[in-house]
Amino acid sequence: MQYALLLFETADDFARREDPQRQIAYRAAHAEFLAALKEAGVAAQSVVGGAGLEAPHTATTLRKRGGSRQVVDGPYSDIKEQMGGIYLIEVANLDAALAWAERCPTASTGAVEIRPTRYPPPN
Amino acid sequence: MNAAAAAERVARESYGRLLASLSARTRDVAAAEDALAEAFAAALRAWPRGDVPDNPEAWLFAAAKRKLIDAARRRRTASDGEAQILLDIEELEALMTARDAPDRRLGLMFACAHPAIEEGVRTPLMLQVVLGFSAERIAAAFLVEPSAMSQRLVRSKKKIRDAGIGFDIPEPAEWRARFGAVLEAIYAAYGVGWSDPLGADPERRGLAEEAVWLARVLVAQVPGEPEPLGLLSLMLHLEARRPARRDRDGRFVPLDEQDVGLWRRDMIGEAETLLRTASKAQRPGRYQLEAAIQSAHATRAWRGVADWDAIVLLYLALSELTGSPVARLNAAAAIARRDGPEAGLAAVEDLAANYGVLRDYQPYWALCAELCARLGRVEAARVAYDEAILRETDAAVIGFLRARRDSL
């Protein structure tokens, strides 16, 4: 099954990305995680990988209601942790996905939400 | 044997095994349940006409499998999906007819008690998918609205299917954490059955017995694991005392005052054997400790007195292991029995200062009341009995507490 690992990062995680002292370790941890996914052959190949996201202050949210466009500054939800990126993986079941989520750097600081993807790519 | 009796026997023996086999690959428990229900209905129609088949389980599996395939055809959502289902079914059939057909019930139990399943629905889910209980029956036992229970069960089955919760037995590294949830779910079913000691409530009747059955299934699949053995031993010790828990008029009889002649010696004997087997693994745990506590109580049947030294030590060990204030309260009660009411009350007051939650707990007040009464502190005892009565729902126990209060 294909799962998305949705990374919810803390304010400090977003700060670390910008901090010259700490960004190296931050990036290295994710690079190492991605390398492990690829080495195990579970990083989803058939779609456009995944992506890291810029910090929540860069977010703009749009809703279309009754033909009119409403655009507001900020992320969709104002919660303590914000979506910081996505990994897509191909594994047998939820337990395998959970095992990978546990190795994801974000699990130790923020949270990782695991969701099956709706439309698995054809084999 | 008539058809209904044969179907009932197969249902009890095989329901979970059939359901696990029918849903292991697709993880679609709800579809397998529907197919199995239709197969049982077909059996009740077919069996009275001819003989009951030699292998009713195989008959039911074949019938349910056909229903599953029919249902998959009717859905026709994706032709690829249908082909896949047929393939899976063929594979399953090959597995089921092989002599060593795997018993996937343990995997099903692990799926029901998966951490991704809401904790409160794990026991109901296990009762439904492993034992075939209806949502109505489970709702009545858990004192919730049938529609609410039904919704929660439907939702958790969808979660199993759509989130990809596997029916695999977890890796040894995860074993202990995952086992805990399975054991807890079984013990919770037992707890619901235990709260109806006379079996007077038809909805709860037999739930304790069914929990014992689930533990037996578990033990049979992982014979050397000490904690499942401990849980089974614990439940058998408690079941052994069921005939003594109420007097002839239905009044509550506290453990200390139970007639040991009414205890089921055969069950105690089996419980003791199980606990000895568990201890060989030298991996103590919560359920082994609790079984050992009940074993120390059971010595009263032979020696006339419970082993209070052991009970104090075991409750202290259990408190350390689980951090449970209830275990600490039980340790204090045991200290009172061993060292007298003064020492007991000191231990209880010490606890209440550290664990405020105990002040909402009926047994805390009942213990305070009894100890105060024994120390001649009549007014304090009366107040504590009133507090205990306020927090109790079982009519028999309320009657017992009132009688104690009024005899002060």
Please, could you describe this protein's structure?
The complex is a heterodimer of chains A (123) and B (408). Chain A has 123 residues and is α+β, with helices and mostly antiparallel strands. Helix content of chain A is 28%, strand content 30%. In chain A, the strands form two sheets. Chain A has a four-stranded antiparallel β-sheet with strand order 2-5-1-6. In chain A, a hairpin with a 2-residue loop joins strand 3 and strand 4. Chain A is globular. In chain B, helix 1 runs antiparallel to helix 2 and helix 16 runs antiparallel to helix 17. Chain B is elongated.
Give the topology:
The complex is a heterodimer of chains A (123) and B (408).
Chain A: E1 2-9, H1 11-18, H2 23-39, E2 51-52, E3 60-65, E4 68-73, E5 82-90, H3 94-103, E6 111-116
Antiparallel strand pairs in A: 1-5, 1-6, 2-5, 3-4
Helix pairs in contact in A: 1-2
Chain B: H1 3-23, H2 29-46, H3 56-75, H4 79-97, H5 105-112, H6 119-131, H7 135-141, H8 146-163, H9 172-194, H10 207-221, H11 226-240, H12 265-279, H13 286-298, H14 300-303, H15 308-322, H16 325-339, H17 341-354, H18 362-374, H19 378-390, H20 395-406
Helix pairs in contact in B: 1-2, 1-3, 2-3, 3-4, 5-6, 6-8, 6-9, 7-8, 9-10, 9-11, 10-11, 11-12, 11-13, 12-13, 13-15, 15-16, 16-17, 17-18, 18-19, 19-20
